[in-house]
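hey can u run this one w/ guanosine-5'-diphosphate bound, need the structure tokens asap thx
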Amino acid sequence: MSNRTFTMIKPDATSKGYTGAILDQIIKAGFSVKAMKWIHLSPAQAGQFYEVHKERPFYGELVEFMSSGPIVAAILEKDNAVADFRTLIGATNPAQAEEGTIRKKFAASIGENAVHGSDSDDNAKIEGDFFFSGLERF
Ligand code: GDP
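ok here u go:
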């Protein structure tokens, strides 16, 4: 099992001023930051990141949303990072997320849902590598 996951604070959350509160909750939950950047993706870059969802009906909306403003991308470390982070953020649809989870507190809808969290160790590696060179992480 890997002890790393990858996250993004999405444009809805950065634009509403939730970045600090979300990072605070992540760090208080025991994750340490191994890489971080504030970046505004182009539509092409967002499309490439979400390539796996290309056939899904919401792909166009997702790409437009993820390139609509800046995000914070980060690699996080903790024992059991992938599963524990998914628990911390809650269900994809904030209406179904547990009380106290990041999406319940900060997300508006299933599309604009405040944060991303990798769904497997393999994807955590692929997604972290998409954003960070070896020099940019430790
Ligand atoms: P996640 O692993 O919880 O992020 O969920 P998924 O892998 O199923 O979907 C990836 C992302 O696509 C979600 O986090 C949402 O931002 C977006 N998404 C998922 N379902 C929908 C939808 O029905 N409509 C829209 N507009 N976006 C969606």
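The two ends are 19 Å apart (CA to CA). anyway lmk if its weird
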